[in-house]
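REQUEST FORM: STRUCTURE PREDICTION
Request ID: SP-0412
Submitted by: Lab K.M.
Chain count: 1
Length (residues): 314
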Amino acid sequence: MRTRITGCGSGRAAGTIGSIAALTRAARRWARLIILAASCGLAALPAQAGDALVNATPTHPLRIITLAPSATELVFAAGAGDNIVGTVVSSDYPAAARAIPRVGDGIQLNVESILALNPDLLVAWQASNAIRALAALVAPLGVPILYEAPQSLPDIPKAIRRLGAKLGTAPIASAKADALQARINALDPGHRTLTVFIEVSADPLYTLGRDPLINDLLARCGAVNLYGDRLVAAPQINAESVLRDQPDVVIVSPYGWETLDELAGYWRRLRLPAAVQGHVYAIDPDWLHRPGPRMIDAAEAVCRDLARRRAAAH
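STATUS: Completed
RESULT:
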């Protein structure tokens, strides 16, 4: 019989997942993860949590299992993608990641599959209940878990450097980190602060709240999150509050068959000024919602869109 570890120990998360059953198939793929993070009370652990791994350059290739798509992207960016022997279902970038064996979906983890792969290191995003339970099982085997949960854009190249130092790929990791940091330094905040509403899902309506990484990205583009003071990472809101607060810009993330025009059309019909004036912009959800290297792509896209909004005001 296969043993699976599930992501939340309480029925509260299960109810949350049920409440988003009406979302489009693709939106559920990542909205569920965001909402679970809030529901299960996940807390980002410091990167030092993985320091049980020896600091010396490995004398043999490490066998790595990544437990989040962002972790997969960070390990590849650090030059150690070939060492990943297992990952989660949603790890689909870069293309080589699609061929890696799967050990769960991030909510449920298959313990037998993980142990059979004989990993030397697990790389995770945050310590969910499932990962905490897994950690207790692999600790006696001497298998550490390294948590990488960036809280700001510069934390992303720092994470890549840290992984490169631990995995024996420091030259590759340093070059990638330098390039990313240069792009972060080049982000332009513009001359006027704008308010931004980020639509995570439309029905029900979810946004991003107190998410330090997203809020740092917006700040570097000269913007503030309309709901950045909410206590949870992904609060459910109503359209009336968006209409009342009138953001300067709306950011959406079309998935699958969804289109920018379809998502913007909803707000145009409600006569939201930003939508009526054409200031609803689409950002690839995998760029914007995975705390990995492609968040720099998202930041550059957001800065360009906000520059268009400022230019339109003249």
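NOTES: The chain is about 40% helix and 10% strand.
Reviewed by: T.R.
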